[in-house]
């Protein structure tokens, strides 16, 4: 139930990390872009094809060492419906390779509209030809600040289809404290949201003690990450902010429980653009991504072991 499939994969791979696939053309090697723009006259079609080629090569290089990918929907939507198709094909390809897919959409609405989001990303859509999966991700990031009305439709799908969600709690951006650190009585807003995650997931707890309702907690706030790990024993963490945003292995350690589980750490640009940082031949971009993913895995696992 809930996070079990993800945790199973993390334990199997001995790797609590997720590769964020947030591509834009500037990240894609020039030779791929040239091939795609020579093939398609429509610039959005060419762009989407370039993203998809890039993603497939990255997945091929990572699927046997990294348990999951996290595509950020906005990076595909900015290339129109063609980009959304590339997102759909990326999800399908990653799942064919056995990876868990965590769509980063930060969806936020209520009632029938939230039911539609839940159906689109995690559920099945009714058609005249029967039910079909639209995007078919395993997990979805959501904004819980509309309250329970925005979460209940997702919980129903999570229970029916063994899916999970990650609710924004303490985000990694600099200005997060403008709202999330404000006080509600004796607690800060992010603490209240964390408590709500515990309550929302109370009847979906799986074999590892974690529910289908996870929390997004940034590596850029290590003290709060450690604090929330202690206060939210049944809430699994998705931790952005490692690498390009400044978080390091020591910063993320507080997100893990005494058994070394409880969190998955995201790196997007660090993995996708590793070839640019290395300065290697752009044709070896997938190899560079694999090397960076291994380095990241070892960095985090060593930090957890030395706590």
Topology readout:
Blueprint: H1 4-13, E1 17-21, H2 30-39, H3 43-62, E2 68-71, H4 74-77, H5 80-96, E3 100-107, H6 111-121, E4 125-127, E5 130-132, E6 139-142, H7 152-161, E7 164-170, H8 177-180, E8 183-184, E9 187-188, H9 189-200, E10 213-217, H10 222-231, E11 237-239, H11 249-252, E12 263-267, H12 269-272, H13 274-278, H14 285-305
Parallel strand pairs: 1-2, 1-12, 2-3, 3-6, 6-7, 7-10, 10-11, 11-12
Antiparallel strand pairs: 4-5, 8-9
Helix pairs in contact: 2-3, 3-5, 3-14
Question: What does this protein look like?
Answer:
It is a single chain. With 307 residues, the chain is an alpha/beta fold. The protein has one domain (4-305): TIM Barrel (Alpha-Beta Barrel), CATH 3.20.20.70. The chain contains 14 helices and twelve strands. The chain has helices spanning 4-13, 30-39, 43-62, 74-77, 80-96, 111-121, 152-161, 177-180, 189-200, 222-231, 249-252, 269-272, 274-278, 285-305; strands at 17-21, 68-71, 100-107, 125-127, 130-132, 139-142, 164-170, 183-184, 187-188, 213-217, 237-239, 263-267. The strands form three sheets. Strands 1-2-3-6-7-10-11-12 form an eight-stranded parallel barrel, surrounded by eight helices. It has a two-stranded antiparallel ribbon with strand order 4-5. Strands 8-9 form a two-stranded antiparallel sheet. Helix 11 (249-252) links the parallel strand 11 (237-239) and strand 12 (263-267). Helix 3 (43-62) packs across helix 14. The chain starts with a helix and ends with a helix. The model has no long low-confidence stretch (mean pLDDT 96).
Order of helices and strands: HEHHEHHEHEEEHEHEEHEHEHEHHH
- pLDDT averaged residue by residue: 96
Task: Please write the CATH class name.
Answer: Alpha Beta
Shape: globular
**Sequence of strands across the biggest β-sheet:** 1-2-3-6-7-10-11-12
Which class do the helix and strand fractions yield?
alpha/beta
Summarize the main sheet: 8 strands, parallel, barrel
Number of domains: 1
β-strand number: 12
Given the structure, what is the number of helices? 14
Share of residues in strands: 15-25%
CATH topology: TIM Barrel
Q: Please identify which CATH superfamily we are dealing with.
A: Aldolase class I
Radius of gyration: 19 Å
Helix content: 40-55%
Unreliable residue runs: none
Distance between the ends = 29 Å
What would CATH call the architecture? Alpha-Beta Barrel
Active site: 106
Domain Orotidine 5'-phosphate decarboxylase: 16-283
EC number: 4.1.1.23
Protein name: Orotidine 5'-phosphate decarboxylase
């Amino acid at each position: 139930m809930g996070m079990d499939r993800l945790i199973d994969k993390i334990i199997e791979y001995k790797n609590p990390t997720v590769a964020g696939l947030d591509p834009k053309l500037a990240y894609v090697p020039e030779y791929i872009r040239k091939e795609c723009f020579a093939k398609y006259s429509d610039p959005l079609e060419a762009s989407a094809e370039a993203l998809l080629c890039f993603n497939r090569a990255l997945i091929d290089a990572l699927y046997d060492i990294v348990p999951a990918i996290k595509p950020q929907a906005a990076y595909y939507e900015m290339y129109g419906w063609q980009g959304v198709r590339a997102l759909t094909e990326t999800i399908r390809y990653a799942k064919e390779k056995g990876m868990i897919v965590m769509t980063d959409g930060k969806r936020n609405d209520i009632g029938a509209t939230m039911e539609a989001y839940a159906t689109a990303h995690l559920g099945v859509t009714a058609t005249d030809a029967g039910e079909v999966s639209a995007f078919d991700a395993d997990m979805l990031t959501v904004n819980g600040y509309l309250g329970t009305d925005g979460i209940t439709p997702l919980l129903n799908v999570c229970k029916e289809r063994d899916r999970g969600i990650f609710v924004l709690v303490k985000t990694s951006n600099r200005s997060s404290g403008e709202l999330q650190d404000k006080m509600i009585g004796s607690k800060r807003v992010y603490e209240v949201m964390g408590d709500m995650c515990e309550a929302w997931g109370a009847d979906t707890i799986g074999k590892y003690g974690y529910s289908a309702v996870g929390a997004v907690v940034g590596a850029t706030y290590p003290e709060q990450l450690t604090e929330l790990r202690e206060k939210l024993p049944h809430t699994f963490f998705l931790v952005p902010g490692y690498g390009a945003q400044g978080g390091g292995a020591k910063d993320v350690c507080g997100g893990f429980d005494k058994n070394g589980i409880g969190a998955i750490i995201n790196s997007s640009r660090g993995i996708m653009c590793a070839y640019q940082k290395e300065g290697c031949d752009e044709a070896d971009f997938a190899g560079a991504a694999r090397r960076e993913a291994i380095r990241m895995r070892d960095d985090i696992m060593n930090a957890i072991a030395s706590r």
